[in-house]
Amino acid sequence: MTSHLVTDPNIDAPDEFYAALTELHRDLDDPESAKVNAKLILLLANHIGDAVVLNEAIALARSKPGA
Amino acid sequence: MPKTYQNPRYPYRRSADQDSAGAHHPVIIVGAGLVGLTAAVDLATRGVPTVVLDDDDTVSFGSRALCFSQRTLEIYDRLGLGDRLQAKGVTWNRGKVFFKDRLIYSFDLQPEGGHRWPAFINLQQYYPEQWLVERAEESGLVDLRWKNRVTGVSQDGDTATLSVETPDGPYQLTCDYLLAADGARSQVRRCFGLAFDGQVFQDHFLIADVVMKADFPTERWFWFDPPFHPGQSALLHKQPDGVWRIDLQLGWDTDPEEEKKPENVIPRLKAMLGEEVDFELEWVSVYTFQCRRLERFRHGRVFFIGDSAHQVSPFGARGGNAGVQDADNLCWKLAAVLDGRARESLLDSYEVERIPATEENILHSTRSTDFITPKNAISRAFRDATLELAAELPFARALVNSGRLSRAYCPPHDGPGPLGPNSLVPGSPCPDAPLQRGNQRSWLLQQLQGGFFGIYFTNQPLTEEERGKLARLTGDHPDLQSLVIARQGCRTPGLWQDCDGLFEARYGATPGSFTLVRPDQHVVQSWSVLDCEAVARSRAEALS
Predict the structure, then answer these.
(1) What is the pLDDT of residues B326-354, one digit of tens each?
(2) Could you tell me which chain A residue has the CA closest to the CA of B393?
(3) CB of B199 within 8 A of CB of B293?
(4) Whether the Cβ atoms of residue B226 and residue B100 lie closer than 8 Å to each other
(5) Are the Cβ atoms of B385 and A35 closer than 8 angstroms?
(6) Of B63-77, B104-118, B179-193, B306-320, where does mean pLDDT reach its minimum?
(7) What is the domain range of residue A47?
């Protein structure tokens, strides 16, 4: 069975997650923020692992809004 | 400057060809470097005489290629140089990666045993070149012509014609086949006006060979952004003779000529090695690099091998090793065509097989370079994030790329090979395995030297019928030899035994299975049952 990227709502507590994400970058300058984001992406990507899902996410992240 | 090695000077000798118009040879090789000499010696082992032209009169200056991979060592063993390379070379399997001021992890390149040759040895390029010259001369089949500079090449349907400049003036030669092994600045390539396109990396690297007595272990050490060389990368590697190779990334805004001066090199090395370490400079070079290749490696009568056909970044040891494997792929085919066992069209398979291998090398070397030298702020953020995570979390170590080290090229495949899930797919290089017969120990690849081989696997003494089939195969095809391997633990006096079970495991062999191997130790095909007609068809296909 091939899995695909989940794009339906799937985060348990969306507001809490979003707040944690914002909090993560408090007091960081831009280069530090960029590195923290990079770490977060790498950690989550490893958790997912599946190349199909990762490539779908990469393609979707790069697509223009409304396109 | 070098103190540990004196380049031999090979004398120019006037050839009788210089006094006769229209001297013709079956094979001429341009370039007596690592790859050209490898091709000359390989062809000599197959009985093919060659003329080798070189514009210089010595071997490599400086250590250059340095890292010789397992597949290259297997090829050099076939050419009679394996033991010598191993005895002189520095064997290493372990690498360490540093980020800023700390070690983030170590890796082992060959945790798997049961191979005759290690994953890598380090050896200055001039040693194998010098030994290849000796082998070439011993063979009596290689006519090495030093101080013979090729100035022009042309070809028609049947022959290639070379204009050669010597200390005694110019002369002309013709040949059936021309191997251009004349390096990244290939004169032969220039003569045919062939495009050599690809990506130039805007960076400078300094290579220094230094002599020192030091306690660094025999490992490959790679630093990202070290305190002694901030913002750049550095590599330390051990060579024989107490020589160490140091590569320092310099960045694009540097002047190569300035950087090469000892007064600029020495402070950088002192910062790296420590003020108290005594060292002497042996050789220094500053380079930029490119990843590029010819679109085609065969142009009529002319074959491009090694750096004349492709260039990669040095990360991954994919330059010299790829060139040696080009020669390995081409030479048996050329020998088969020249002695009439194969049609000329076999030679087209050289580029069909080596272009994908080249693309793989370029891909890996480009990715390594992109990791080592991030092109923008976000790439750098990802790289630094990866390195920081790698110190704590093993998953991130798989993403760190300080060079993906050269391995033999395996063609892509869908699904398992013909013998099931563990079997090798056609086109794979043959993995090695230890063998034993009575008290005698050997290695599989040492038994597969010369022509085609059929490996028959059994779990009992051979029956009359089996012996008959093998005798018929080798009788019908004089270039095919058989090798019978008995399963580990079976009582089969007189047969080679798969003493550690590694042949069975690595080839997916089953009792009664048969694997046909090419003269360059690559798998043609495997069958679960020996069918002489199928083997004969496969051999014929491998020669067409």
Answers:
(1) 999 999 999 999 999 999 999 999 999 99
(2) A43
(3) no
(4) yes
(5) yes
(6) B104-118
(7) 28-60
